[in-house]
Structures are given as C-alpha cells and as structure tokens.
Amino acid sequence: MRDDGSWFSEWDGASGSDTSLIHIDHVVALAEAWRSGAHGWSASKRDEFADDRANLLAVTETSNLRKSDRDAASWFPSRSDANCLWARTTVVVKAEWDLSVDADEKAALENLLTSCGAVPPTTTTTAPPPPTTTYVAPQPLVPQTSPPTTSNCTPGYSPCLPPSSDYDCAGGSGNGPSYTGRVSVDHSYGDKYDLDRDGDGVGCD
Questions:
Q1: What is the CA angle 200-202-203, rounded to 5?
Q2: Does the pTM exceed 0.70?
Q3: CA gap 126, 65 in Å, rounded
C-alpha cells in the first residue's frame, strides 16, 4: 500500500485505490512450502509461516491466480522489474524457514538473480570472532619449602622447638633432648623429630 492509500501490484504493475480488487499473495505459496518441507511441520508452525509478513505481497487477483502455487521454475512476474523482488523474496523466505529448493527452481532463481547485481541477503549470521586473549604459559610448580624463620625454631612445631639433631617425647628411649608436654605438629612441614606418630596433629600425647 502507498502512503495515499492506493495500491500497486508488483507482479503486473497494475494500481488503484479500490482495495477489493487486490489479493494478498504468499510469494512462496503455501502448497509450494508444503512440497518443500512444511508437510513435516506442526500446525502452529504452518500458521506462523502463513502469517509471515516477509512472504506476503498485495497483488491483483489476475496475477495471483496466474501464479497460483508455482515456483520459480514454472513462473515469474509479467513485469520484468519485479523479477528481482520475486527471486530475492523466494530465496530469503525459503532460507529462513529451511525449505528445500529443487534443481530446476535453483537454476531459475540463479538466472533471475544474475540480472539483479547483488546477492540477496541471507538469514544466516556469522558468529563474531572470539575475543583475543594473550596466552600466558602456566608457571611450573615449585616445591614448597619451609618459610624462613625469624626466630630460632624448627618449622612445623608449636610451641617452639629450637633446632636439634633429634627430640624425644618425655619417657622415650631416644638419644635426643626430651620434650615434656604436648606439641602441635603441622605436617605440611613434615615431622622432623617424629613426635606425632599417630598423625593426629598432636605430638607427645
């Protein structure tokens, strides 16, 4: 429809103001869509296709009946300026709805589109490239060592045990100094003096 309320039929170039003289044409006819894959759709999807505005065009009754349910292999508009619109719309709608195109129709569409210049827009989109990131090589694991001590204590024991060649719990039979009482043992540093033999974190208990 034009801004002044009049209509123009793309297929044959007719125009007028009496809307009772126009038909709404499915560019890709419903029967053609059925043959091209719509037979496997649900009823609701077929309804959605029938209402797809990209596939609807106001035309005269004469051109609509002449076109009927034919595809590009057996029909094209009598107005040559409409050939590109016919071919482009068919390609876009069939791509959007994943409908098939047989060999004869494909050849006819390619022939029509050759005279149109630009290739019709497709409904497929290209995914944006992934963001570029700077690769950082993983750092090798460094074996954990006892942190430097600021006091004269053996790491891993609390209270402090001054460094010695050995310690024995009170009542033990070893040769090292005897430790009286309980001592907390942090096994992440090991148990240098073997004071926590049951491994519960408490030595000399």
A1: 115
A2: no
A3: 39
